[in-house]
Structures are given as structure tokens and as C-alpha cells.
Amino acid sequence: MEATTSTFLITHADDDSAMARDVHSGQVHPLADNPGVEAGDVIEATVAPEPPLELTWQVIEVDDRRTIPVKRSEEPPTSQERELASEQEIGEMTRTERAGTGEIHVISVDPAQTDAAVADVLEDEGTRTRGARLGVNRVEIRADGTDGIISVRYLP
After folding, report:
1. Please, are residues 136 and 156 in contact by the beta-carbon 8 Å criterion?
2. 117 vs 150: CA distance, rounded Å
3. Rounded average pLDDT over 82-97
4. b/e burial code for range 93-117 (CB count within 10 A of at least 16 → b)
5. Which residue, 29, 33, 71, 125, shows the most beta carbons closer than 10 Å to its own?
6. Integer distance in angstroms from the first to the last C-alpha of the chain?
7. Number of CB atoms found within 10 A of residue 59's CB
8. Which residues pair with 155 in a beta bridge?
9. What does the pLDDT average to over 43-53?
10. How far is C-alpha 55 from the geometric centre of its chain's CA atoms?
11. Average pLDDT in the 50-76 region?
12. CA angle (29 as vertex; 25, 32 as ends), nearest 5
């Protein structure tokens, strides 16, 4: 195996080790030690297999370390997001690019399930992984329980 330079989401960390998932390939890299990261951190780094067995990885260099906060906003979905939601059925999702960096995902849900669906998005590791892959600095979730609209905004 060869060294890999990529963006990694730290999915688990304790004092002695960590797990890093490549946000582009999905490959999981068990790290032989913890290079000072916490679960939820995103690092731009180079990792290499640790000899002789190459079962774990070591961090060779960290170019950047950051967190991507995922929070629910008190703001309602925008008129553009409402329009997108009006064109889809419950259970469907539409992705649209933002001007500049990021994306917006509009999800239509049963209005009675809006809060539960928002909680799922907040807890879903995939939300943070997608944010890291898109290169954003924060993820904002807006919701309207009356109409069953959730917007997940990946923002610079």
C-alpha cells in the first residue's frame, strides 16, 4: 500500500488511536496513534501504512484541521427551497448548487415527521462527510414542520 493524501473525517478518537475515513473514497484508515484529533474533526492529511503488517496507518503530515459544525437554524427554508419542495413528493430530495461554494439539499417529509427527520440529519455522519467533501465550513439545517420541508445548507 502507498501513502494517501486526502480529506479525512475522524469518526472515532481516543487517547491512543483514531479512525479516519477518506471523504472521497470512503476508505477507513485505523490510525496507530492519535495525532491530536477528536471525533468529528476534518483533516487534510497524508497517511501511510505502518510497517511491517500495514494493518494500521500513521499520519505523515497534516495540512489543515477543522471542524464542520452541523446546526439547526431558527430561520425557515427560503422561497427557493420552498419552490423546490413543492415540485417533489414526500421522501424525495433535490440537490442544487449554491452560488460559490456548497450545495443545498431540499428534502420533503411527512409534516408530522419533520422534527425526527431533522434529528436524523443532525446525527448522520454522512452530513459532516458531505460537508468535508464539498469543502464547506458549516452546515445549517432549516425546517418547516407545517409543510414538511427540510433544507440542508452546506455553506462556506
Report:
1. yes
2. 8
3. 96
4. eeeeeeeeebbbbbbbbeeeebeeb
5. 29
6. 34
7. 21
8. 138
9. 95
10. 26
11. 95
12. 165
